[in-house]
Amino acid sequence: MNALEEAVSQPNAYPGGLFWITKSGSILYPRVQELLSRAEKAGVRAARIETETFDELMGDLAQQVEDLPAELLGTLNMMRCKVSNVAIPPPGSGWPVVRMNAVPILRWPKECRKFEAKIGGAKELRVLLQSTQARLVAARSKHGVLAFGGDAEVRRVFAAHQPDRLELHSIEVGRLWRETNELNLLRSALVHGLIQGTPLLAWTGRGVHEVRVDDSAADAPRLQPLRTKVNAVAGTVPGTGVKWAEAASIRVEYRLGRLWMLLEPTVWFGKTASDDERYVCGDFVRERQARRYNRVADGILTAWLRVLLPGDGDNEIRAFDSQPGIEARFVLSRRTAFGRRSS
Description:
Blueprint: H1 2-8, E1 18-23, H2 30-41, E2 46-51, H3 54-63, H4 70-79, E3 98-99, E4 102-107, E5 111-116, H5 122-131, E6 137-141, E7 144-150, H6 151-157, E8 164-170, H7 181-194, E9 200-205, E10 208-213, H8 224-230, E11 234-236, E12 243-255, E13 258-269, H9 275-289, H10 294-308, E14 315-318, E15 325-326, E16 329-332, E17 338-339
Helix pairs in contact: 8-10
């Protein structure tokens, strides 16, 4: 730490940036927080990055390299878990299959709107969409701005940024196997459509969206399947003033020739005033999730599917009402993927 701190005061410190990797949900030591703060004040691009495991971190880093050497790819592929797309057997009384949290996306948009605009990077774009209450989802790319929504809304939101050359952009399957602008755009549009007309709120993170119960509408009839499984769906962490709510993280991945929505139930809590309060909230969440195994976890996953995908059969999800422009339409199955013993 002494060396890292001393380096901050040197000319041209950390030209590639300073990134502190931690496990998701962990707390930074005060000295680390001070180091990152000093680095930012010195003009260094400094940030904390959360990850679940070392393997996940290395996988994310590998995806940022477009042209990995063939011999290295060969070695990595030899070590990958082999997955095959097998048919689900009919219900019976034999050994059990393993239910996954992957929901098949049967159809998804193959085109989006592309246009030029005098706007900066992803952060400036996100601020613009929030400040204008845009009825759009958009992503910044080297090709321009990619978006779903009405053309009139595009011109309204980007009026001060001179939108021009509204064209179509093809969403290539070959660009969906890793975290690209197109995949981020599809995930944003899907989540936007899923929460329309529901008592849910959405939050965007790196490579994932999170939806959670709006505590002001915790008694909504739409949430009844979830209340049946977990009783309370929102509240205040005991001994604090911090709000908590049932939540689910949503990822979108391309595997086995199709897109999948990965749905992971969890528990959200709001901002804390101190490290001690964060520890209390963390303990509360761990205790609430401690006994969610097998049958209970299966029931909660089913409840979330009923909240997000009501009715029977396949569900069509639309991000926006029909209007001149490019609509984002998805069709999702309510039957999750299953794993079974290979023959």
